[in-house]
Hints:
Elements: E1 2-10, E2 13-19, H1 30-37, E3 47-52, E4 59-65, H2 75-87, E5 95-99, E6 102-109, E7 113-117, E8 125-126, E9 131-134, E10 138-143, H3 152-160, E11 171-178, E12 183-190, E13 195-197, H4 201-211, E14 218-225, E15 228-238, E16 241-250, E17 252-260
Parallel strand pairs: 2-3, 4-5, 10-11, 12-14
Antiparallel strand pairs: 1-2, 1-17, 3-4, 5-6, 6-7, 7-16, 8-9, 9-10, 11-12, 12-13, 14-15, 15-16
GO molecular function, one term: diaminopimelate epimerase activity
Pfam family, one: DAP_epimerase
Organism: Chitinophaga costaii
Amino acid sequence: xxxxxxxxxxxxxxxxxxxxxxxxxxxLTEEQIKxxxxxxxxxxxxxxxxxxVQEGYDFAMQYYNSDGRPGSMCxxxxxxxxxxxxxxxxxxxxxxxxxxxxxxEATLEGEDWVNLRxxxxxxxxxxxxxxxxxxxxxxxxxxxxxxxxFEVYEKGRSIRYNERFKAVGTNVNFVEPMPAENGIFVRTYxxxxxxxxxxxxxxxxxxxxxxxxxxxxxYTIPVKTLGGNLVxxxxxxxxxxxxxxxxxxPAKLVFEGNIALD
Length: 262
């Protein structure tokens, strides 16, 4: 089978994207998807997405982790797929699509800046050592110091596979405040990839929500990741409730090409 693919990245979170609106790639197996995401023997990516047709929406987002298995919502992936949909001729001022966690809205600014509305959050587990919440995917958030030298892989993996989380898994985010910017620095261990990624959209969203003060008001939180800078905007409406959440940042085409699969 010959595959025509596109490679996109959003702050270093990279994806193989396929236009599957005619259904030609529906039969790809878990092993084939895993192979396409392999960085030595395939295209390479943190995940693979298919642009699909869905009645009532501009498109549907089908997301797979780099292990070849269907994944939950990916924020940077949603932004990249929106940019790809625009490239494929889906030109709307407000783009509406459906993903695994429900409907989303997105807008574009300039050539490569995408604003993505995330799902509302109405519950946050708080503990002296961590926060736990779902922003389309489950996220464990822990604040640390000296994050640049922190052992994200080792610490993140130990939490992801502990007794509580090992069956279903969780993404693990380590966060350091940046007081001068009134923002945060975030590094994430992602389940499904089973490694640290350069950026995680649902992860930085989760981290930004936990960084908000006690006041119920509108927040704009700058976020630094290994792959670049994002902005998370939202309304805090209660102690643990958040609405009108937007993940904003770049989404860029890296290259496109063809690859033959066995």
